[in-house]
Amino acid sequence: MPRKDVVTTQKGAGKAPAERGEWSHPFFAFRQEMDRLMEDFFDGFRTLPFGKRSDTFMPHVDVVDTEKEIEVSAELPGMDEKDIDVSLTGEALVIKGEKKEEKEEKGKDYYRSERSYGSFSRTIPLPVEVDTNKAAATFKKGVLTVSLPKTRQAIEEAKKIAVKTE
């Protein structure tokens, strides 16, 4: 990212800010830069829970490539298995879903109702050919686990390379 100076020296620096105009005041430029830095910093925190960002979300996914299979785990808290669609297309695993959340709270002097809806789609490219007939998916305690056994050919083509020290 290119660096830019926040405070610049201008001709007529002895003039009062009102004479130069609000937009050219060095503290205005400083404030703009601080606002931008704060927005960039806090923008990362908006994606923490469930990858949530306003009305969209993206579940966190782990992919483990073992000798005999590829295992994909996706964190889908608050979802039911009926809201999840798992499919294999070509050389990729596609996980789609829709999350609906409604909260209602009533008190003596208040009523609060919150609703959030959103859908997601994650496409995970597969590094090797998998046996689609033996693929399996389980959903337990908010975690989707998909087991994708490698084909015999993919297992046989894997070659271990020895690492030597110099």
What is the total tally of β strands?
7
* Residue share in helix: 10-25%
Termini distance?
38 Å
CATH architecture of the largest domain: Sandwich
Structure described in brief:
With 166 residues, the protein is of the alpha+beta class.
Question: What does this 3D model show about the protein?
Answer:
With 166 residues, the protein is an alpha+beta fold. Helix content is 17%, strand content 36%. The protein is built from three helices and seven strands; from the N terminus they run ααβββββββα. The chain has a four-stranded antiparallel sheet, with no helix packed on it. The chain is flat. The two termini are 38 Å apart. The model is unreliable at 3-20 and 47-55 (pLDDT under 50).
Helices and strands in order, then pairings?
Elements: H1 17-20, H2 26-43, E1 61-65, E2 69-75, E3 84-89, E4 92-106, E5 111-125, E6 136-140, E7 143-149, H3 152-157
Antiparallel strand pairs: 1-2, 2-7, 3-4, 4-5, 6-7
Q: Which key features would you list for this structure?
A:
166 residues; alpha+beta; Immunoglobulin-like; 2 domains; 4-stranded antiparallel β-sheet; 3-stranded antiparallel β-sheet; 17% helix; flat; disordered N terminus
